[in-house]
Design a protein that fits this description.
The complex is a heterotrimer of chains A (about 280), B (about 425) and C (about 300).
Chain A: H1 5-33, H2 37-40, H3 55-61, H4 64-97, H5 103-115, H6 118-131, H7 138-162, H8 166-174, H9 179-207, H10 211-216, H11 224-227, H12 239-272
Chain B: H1 6-24, E1 33-39, H2 42-58, E2 61-67, H3 72-81, E3 89-92, H4 97-102, H5 109-115, H6 126-131, E4 133-134, E5 137-138, E6 141-142, E7 148-153, H7 154-160, H8 168-180, H9 195-205, H10 223-234, H11 241-244, H12 248-257, E8 262-266, H13 270-273, E9 286-289, E10 300-301, E11 306-309, H14 316-327, H15 332-337, H16 350-359, H17 363-371, E12 373-374, H18 382-397, H19 403-420
Parallel strand pairs in B: 1-2, 1-3, 10-12
Antiparallel strand pairs in B: 3-11, 4-5, 6-11, 7-8, 7-9
Helix pairs in contact in B: 9-10, 9-18, 18-19
Chain C: H1 16-45, H2 63-68, H3 72-104, H4 110-122, H5 125-135, H6 142-148, H7 160-188, H8 192-200, H9 205-216, H10 218-233, H11 237-242, H12 254-263, H13 268-293
The chains are: A mainly alpha (about 280), B alpha/beta (about 425), C mainly alpha (about 300).
């Protein structure tokens, strides 16, 4: 069905409008990062006609606490991804290809996690965490976030596993291969895109996480998402520094997705096209 | 996944184990080292400035943990639950006292204060000693003293021929004249996290109260309380939009940026509003006076930071040494010069008084306000009460609920809280 | 929809052990991080524990449920949760459908637009919320300035209706990418012949979309609705940063109510009762999803 010229133009207008709505807050963040706090608070706001300064970037770059926070964010994101991949991949395979006692219960448990808002878990979790001495530690955030992301990762991988034609495995079984050999030589290579997708989603999700770290950390395991709250104090709000810190949160993800876009899109498409 | 390719797997396993172990390792603290838990404020900035001198004198290292104001009480209570010894010195606020005391989180620092020659507890006014006391135990010493008083623009007053209001009726009439001249007449915050504080102070300026001290029956519908709340609502029309949904800080920002004639706020903001760099537009145009009163009442709310010692700290003696050093008689001038609002200590030496006069020219007003200032209600339900009253007053100010229904709801909500805790019958 | 390929268990009974081993890491994680707190939380909800009480913990039965779940406060928060969920999904589906259809045409530059549309999903919700709170500042915010061009001056944070709109808008903004991409995938997978023959037969725009395309997209839309419902219901970060539940209690949703009760009122037992109630409400919805995906 060919689109008319009018159709094409209105299509582009729509896309451009949506793009503006999406880009505007991001642009605002980045431009405010380049303003002094005083200039960030002028009205009417100077969206383009301001004198850029790098003082905010210099301040954060020289701030030991900020480095620590970036380090923590990175550690939590990377380790959560490792844990999720290691836990979700075998789980997804076993859920989609095997039958065993307790399978229904596991599915129930995974579902339970997905419907429970994190806040519901955090109060009793805090008591447990404190009792066993895990408060204010990176490992605590890693394990909690992994558990919260696990269901989503598992469903995505289940979809990927199911898209691998069973005939491939069947043929290998007929040829006498053991289950583990089949997994290693056939499933693993074909599942790599799925694993990459899950890894990326988990990486980004853990990097952006706020609620869990804000409750589970105090000084030693504070990621950047919690760090930015220090710019809103009882005495003042430093718009410039706040925007700069937010930019430091956004930019790595933006750069990362330029490289990893096809996995993100692929993952979502695989998850939805189940039939 | 379970098979070999073992070298890659081994490397991965090693990395993970090292990370796990290192993140689980309990960091050993140097024997002579204390942790000071603070929130960003001029007072804590001054405490940080005192650190190096203290370390030089005693050899005890001082570490600072800074948390956002809204997080103080949660962090302290959670740490207390786990009997954590991480914090030694802790900064907190008036509305936190009951919670911290009920949970047994604080050391009875009053005993140390009384026994200390350096601290000279005798020079702390009785009002401020009571401020840090709950059920007979003194759990906090004053870090700053900040009663709610009247702030006004003396240049606008002069221009419009206004007099400093002694009553709220005069305040309202001043506000109207300002409004008619194109300025904002008032910047009392009505935000859902702040309304109850200053409007609560207004209620006491009128001689009213949230609830009866003895029976716990809510008294928002008493004649005095209702009159105060009505006055607050009647001022909304001439309040900047951001202040209607904001708190004390937003009111100060409005004062800095817009032309606002008057507001009710804490004295401690002087370090922001009186500073040429931070408030270039208004720093030399502001003046302070006693909060307006009605019906012969003299009451207002007393606020200010308290500071104390963690009950589970393992360095209590060193923690006290730090407090003695920063807040004691020897370093009064140094502490003030480091930017701290007055602690409330009565000064005796001329040079000390001179420094105080330079740093806080409003002390006469502050002292007079302090004489009749009362701390926020010391009941265990206070945080819930403040939240409910905050939101109720905010709903009234944003016209979500009518005045009469709003008063009734305030009464009902506070009553429900006392019913839940068993102080009132349902 | 691919149903679970039934395999005769006897053929692979040896690997049941392997399967259970595969599930072990995930299972351990979930048991310790999710099941244990849920059970503990359920226990707390029946006691009088609180972070500040000096009373000994004792069993109080359903008292917390009476005081905090079967009340109008809980009902209001539930209403807010439902409103946010309903309106954000509705607007996402409407906008998402139109955008997905345009993208499906694969005009020049589609790849660029897809990258842009993906943005909100990747950006930190807390940071976005903070930036929006600056933008929505009623005195110096950019939104106030932009509004002045069309003669408006709405203070979004000062009235319940507009504050809810702001929250719904942010929820819409943040999750539009997901809806667009999933719908796009669905549209790309539609059998082109049916659509083409219908349009040749003279179907107009309404008939084509409403009678043919959308019904064929029904499974995809259902997946979107279920996933988005569960997530919109759980929304927290934005409300926490933008409105703190205000003005008044207008934007207090269920997770925020639980947070407030636990960390502002310090009453862990009442917060646990609210939490248990939240799970009880959302569970059935998700079981429907399970039935539909049949693992």
């Amino acid at each position: 069905m060919k689109t008319s010229i009018l159709g094409k133009i209105s299509g582009y207008i729509l896309l451009i409008s949506i793009s503006i709505i999406i880009i505007f807050p991001v642009f605002y963040t980045l431009s405010t990062a380049l303003k002094t706090n005083a200039e960030a608070q002028t009205f009417p706001p100077r969206l383009l006609n301001f004198s850029p300064t790098t003082e905010n970037i210099k301040y954060l770059a020289g701030n030991a606490d900020f480095y620590e926070a970036m380090k923590i964010s990175l550690l939590v994101a990377v380790f959560t991804t490792l844990v999720v991949v290691f836990a979700a991949t075998p789980l997804a395979y076993s859920l989609s290809r095997m039958n065993y006692p307790g399978k229904k219960l596991i599915v129930l448990l995974v579902t339970l996690v997905q419907v429970t808002p994190a806040i519901v878990l955090l109060v009793p979790l805090f008591a447990i965490v404190a009792k066993f001495g895990f408060y204010d530690k990176v490992i605590t955030q890693v394990l909690i976030l992994s558990a919260l992301i696990l269901p989503f990762a598992t469903w995505i991988l289940v979809a990927f596993v199911k898209s691998i034609p069973f005939e491939l495995e069947e043929a290998a079984f007929v040829d006498g291969a053991s289950r583990l050999q089949v997994i290693w030589h056939i499933i693993r290579p074909l599942l790599t895109p799925g694993i990459m997708t899950v890894a990326i989603f988990t990486l980004i999700g853990a990097w952006n996480e706020f609620l869990v770290p804000v409750i589970m950390s105090e000084s030693k395991a504070k990621p950047v998402t919690v760090f930015i709250t220090r710019f809103i104090t009882e005495k003042s709000i430093d718009y410039g520094l706040l925007a700069t810190a937010c930019s430091f949160l956004f930019i790595p993800v933006l750069l990362f997705t330029i490289f990893a876009k096809r996995f993100i899109v692929g993952g979502l498409l695989a998850g939805s096209v189940k039939g | 996944m379970l098979n070999s390719n073992s070298s890659k797997r081994k490397v991965l396993v090693t990395i993970i184990s090292v990370a796990l172990v290192s993140s689980m390792a309990v960091s050993a603290r140097a024997a002579q080292e204390i942790n000071v838990f603070v929130t960003a404020s001029p007072s804590s900035d001054a405490l940080k400035a005192m650190g190096p001198g203290f370390t030089a004198k005693t050899g005890i290292k001082v570490n600072y943990v800074t948390v956002p104001t809204g997080d103080i009480i949660t962090k302290l209570l959670l740490a207390c639950q786990t009997k954590s010894s991480t914090n030694d010195v802790v900064q907190f606020d008036s509305q936190h006292v009951t919670a911290l005391a009920s949970a047994g989180c604080l050391d009875e620092v009053g005993l140390r204060a009384v026994a200390s020659a350096e601290y000279q507890d005798a020079r702390i006014p009785a009002q401020l000693k009571a401020y840090g006391t709950y059920q007979g135990k003194r759990l906090g010493i004053p870090l700053s003293t900040e009663p709610y008083i009247l702030w006004y623009r003396k240049d606008i007053y002069a221009k419009l021929g206004l007099k400093v209001p002694k009553t709220w009726t005069q305040y309202a009439s001043n506000a109207k004249k300002c409004h008619d001249a194109g300025y904002y007449g008032s910047a009392i915050p009505y935000g859902a996290a702040a309304a109850a504080y200053r409007i609560g102070a207004m209620i006491h300026n009128y001689g009213g109260a949230f609830f009866d001290k003895n029976t716990y029956e809510p008294t928002f519908n008493s004649a005095k309380s209702t009159a105060a709340i009505k006055m607050a609502m009647d001022l909304v029309y001439t309040t900047p939009a951001s202040v209607i949904s904001g708190g004390g800080l937003v009111a100060v920002q409005a004062m800095q940026e817009l032309d606002v004639c008057q507001m009710l706020n804490a004295t401690g903001w002087y370090s922001t509003l009186g500073d040429a760099k931070q408030s270039p537009k208004v720093y030399d145009k502001l003046a302070l006076a006693d909060a307006p009163h009605m019906n012969g009442s003299k009451e207002t709310f007393l606020f200010g930071w308290l500071i104390g010692i963690n009950q589970y700290s393992e360095q209590k003696t060193n923690a006290w040494k730090f407090l003695e050093y920063s807040l004691g008689k020897t370093n009064v001038e140094a502490f003030l010069k480091a930017g701290a609002p007055p602690t409330g200590r009565v000064l005796f030496s001329t040079s000390q008084k001179a420094v105080l006069a330079k740093v806080a020219p409003y002390t006469a007003v502050m002292d007079s306000a302090n004489k009749n200032a009362i701390p926020l209600y010391r009941v265990p339900e206070i945080t819930e009460i403040m939240d409910v009253v905050n939101r109720g007053l905010n709903a009234m100010a944003t016209k979500q609920i009518s005045f009469d229904a709003g008063i009734a709801k305030l009464n009902a909500d506070v009553k429900a809280i006392f019913v839940k805790s068993g102080k009132l019958k349902g | 929809m691919i149903k679970s390929e039934a395999r005769p268990a006897r053929k692979y009974s040896r690997s049941s052990g392997l399967a259970m081993l595969f599930s072990l890491p995930g299972l351990l994680l979930l048991l310790s991080v999710v099941l244990a707190p849920l059970i503990t939380g359920f226990y707390y909800s029946l006691t009088n524990s609180s972070l500040i009480s000096s009373e000994p913990t004792k069993f109080v039965g359903l008292r917390n449920y009476k005081s905090d779940v079967f009340t109008s406060t809980f009902g209001d928060a539930l209403k807010v949760s439902l409103q946010i969920t309903f309106f954000s999904i509705l607007t996402q589906l409407l906008a998402g459908y139109v955008i997905a259809k345009v993208l499906a045409r694969s005009m020049k530059g589609t790849s660029f637009f897809v990258s842009v549309i993906m943005l909100p999903m990747l950006l930190t919700p807390v940071a976005i919320g903070m930036m929006w709170s600056l933008l929505l500042n009623p005195d110096i915010g950019a939104i106030k300035w932009l509004q002045s061009f069309v003669g408006l001056d709405i203070n979004f944070l000062s009235s319940s209706g507009t504050a809810m709109s702001a929250i719904i808008f942010l929820e819409w903004w943040g999750h539009l990418p997901f809806v667009v991409l999933v719908l796009l995938a669905g549209i790309l997978n539609l059998p082109k012949e049916i659509i083409e023959s219908a349009s040749i037969d003279g179907a107009n725009w309404w008939q084509l979309n409403l009678r043919i395309i959308i019904p064929m997209l029904a499974p995809v839309i259902a997946v979107i609705v279920i996933i988005r419902s569960v997530n919109a219901f759980r929304m927290f970060d934005t409300i926490f940063v933008l409105t703190s539940g205000g003005p008044g209690n207008a934007t207090v949703n269920l997770p925020f109510l639980a947070y407030k009760t636990a960390f502002t009122y310090f009453d862990t037992s009442r917060a646990s009762a609210i939490s248990v109630a939240i799970v009880a409400i959302v569970m059935p919805v998700y079981f429907i999803f399970l039935k539909m995906t049949k693992v």
